[in-house]
Amino acid sequence: MESRIERIKKQLHGASYKLTPQREATVLVLLENEEDHLSAEDVFLLVKEKAPEIGLATVYRTLELLTELKIVDKINFGDGVSRYDLRQEGASRFHHHLICIECGKVAEIQEDLLGDVEKIVESRYGFTVKDHWLTFHGVCQSCKSSGNESKK
Ligand SMILES: [Zn+2]
Ligand SMILES: [Zn+2]
């Protein structure tokens, strides 16, 4: 984790930003909760534990900056809440999500399954793809095995 924060620090420096203690606390929270999809308020509450003097506006600005630098992606799963999701290092595309319609769990697929789809889009529509977001809606394995699925 140490080296990852160092690399994020370099990314910030490369864009002429400093990794201030407030920014560092925000990045650490994102790294520690990498599996989660935290809203700005969620991040703020966790950052406050490390840096009690920090304000929501500062956390919010940091998240916007990290989004701009493509260190995180801002996503919305249709509930109207913006969530912040760390992008895998060196990934040119955003990871895919599986959302369970029964329990609400969000899982991630880090492998990119859309390479061929992008080729079709490029050749058939003359469109150069830079990124994509893919969210699958369905029933997760644990809901299936606990039989929740049959109730609906
Ligand atoms: Zn994610
Ligand atoms: Zn489920």
UniProtKB/TrEMBL annotation:
Pfam families attached to this UniProt entry: FUR
SUPFAM superfamilies reported for this sequence: Winged helix' DNA-binding domain (SSF46785)
Protein name as annotated: Fur family transcriptional regulator
Ligand binding (Zn(2+)): C100, C103, C140, C143
GO BP: any one term: negative regulation of DNA-templated transcription
Organism whose genome encodes this protein: Sporosarcina thermotolerans
GO terms assigned for molecular function: DNA-binding transcription factor activity; transcription cis-regulatory region binding; zinc ion binding
Cofactor: Zn(2+); Mn(2+); Fe(2+)
Family stated for the protein in its record: Belongs to the Fur family.
Cofactor note as given: Binds 1 zinc ion per subunit.
List of residues binding Fe cation: H132
Keywords, sorted A to Z: DNA-binding, Iron, Metal-binding, Repressor, Transcription, Transcription regulation, Zinc
